[in-house]
Amino acid sequence: MFQKVLLFQILISAAICSRGLRNTVSTTFIKQTTTGTITSEIPVSTRNDKVELTVYYETLCPASVDFFVTQLKPTVKRLTEHLDVHLIPYGHAKTFRSRGRYFFDCQHGRRECFANMVHACAIDVLRNNTHSIFFNSCLMQYISYQSNYDYFVSVVSWCGYTEKVHIAEIWKCVKGLRGNILLKKYGDATHELSPSYVPYLMINGSTQHQDEASSDLLGTVCRILNPKPKACRS
Ligand SMILES: *[C@@H]1O[C@H](CO)[C@@H](O)[C@H](O)[C@H]1NC(C)=O
Ligand SMILES: *[C@@H]1O[C@H](CO)[C@@H](O)[C@H](O)[C@H]1NC(C)=O
Questions:
Q1: What Pfam families does this protein's entry cite (predicted)?
Q2: To pair with 125 at 20 to 30 A between CA atoms, which of 1, 11, 176, 199?
Q3: 188-200 residue pLDDT tens
Q4: Cβ(70) to ligand 1 under 6 A?
Q5: Ligand 1 center to residue 224 CA distance, Å?
């Protein structure tokens, strides 16, 4: 029964969050120059004990939520010192410019644009990948596209409390120009790649491990790491 429900959810999520048919994209190396000041520059790792993962996603997409909660967070928890994760919260959104400001149109509506911006601001304010993954993962776990604004605000407070995040700074970013600029930059990075579905995963700048990583991130990262750290052996 559980498996049936899960399968159903996966089918629904695929239907909601893909932009056209899922096809194999064979991009190998992507320049991240447009992300400039937002994500630190992403050179191909030169060390053997670190895997670089870039996650393109949108906050209200059930498949993205599922990836954060069941794959990303547990993997980061175990292998934090072997991962260099970059979050790109934008997905299938559109950016418009009007009177010196950017406006966004998101796949799951205005709530999603708002939640994407909260994620972007959390990444910016915390400046600690592990911490922002835990906080953003908490947000994703408790909100859905049915959540109203007041509920969303209370979830931000709750996650701030459980993950020890100073949310006042995040609200300041969301309400000010900073959040607007951050989301625009993530939009540029996403449009450059134009993923046909989310979550879209790049490992060391390649999509080669996309499929295995979306359903077994820990196993995938462990297969790539050499030598295998202790956390991969237990
Ligand atoms: C990622 O980079 C590390 C370090 O150079 C390397 O050991 C690993 O094999 C690379 N993984 C992939 C998938 O290219
Ligand atoms: C980053 O955040 C994690 C999780 O909250 C924490 O354990 C770690 O000490 C932080 N790293 C730095 C450099 O502050």
A1: GILT (PF03227)
A2: 199
A3: 999 999 999 999 9
A4: no
A5: 6
Integer-rounded Cα radius of gyration of the chain: 17
Chain segment 54-94, per-residue pLDDT in tens: 999 999 999 999 999 999 999 999 999 999 999 999 999 99
**Token pair 């899960």: residue:** 6
Report whether residue 224 contacts ligand 1, using a CB cutoff of 6 Å. yes
Low-confidence ranges of the chain (pLDDT < 70): 1-16, 19-48
19-58 burial, b if ≥16 CB within 10 A, otherwise e?
eeeeeeeeeeeeebeebeebbeebeeeeeeebbbbbbbbb
In angstroms, what is the span from residue 206 Cα to ligand 1's centroid? 10
Atom of ligand 2 nearest to the CA of 128: 1
Rounded to whole angstroms, the Cα distance separating 193 from 121 reads 22
Supply φ then ψ for residue 122, to 5 degrees.
Answer: -65, -45
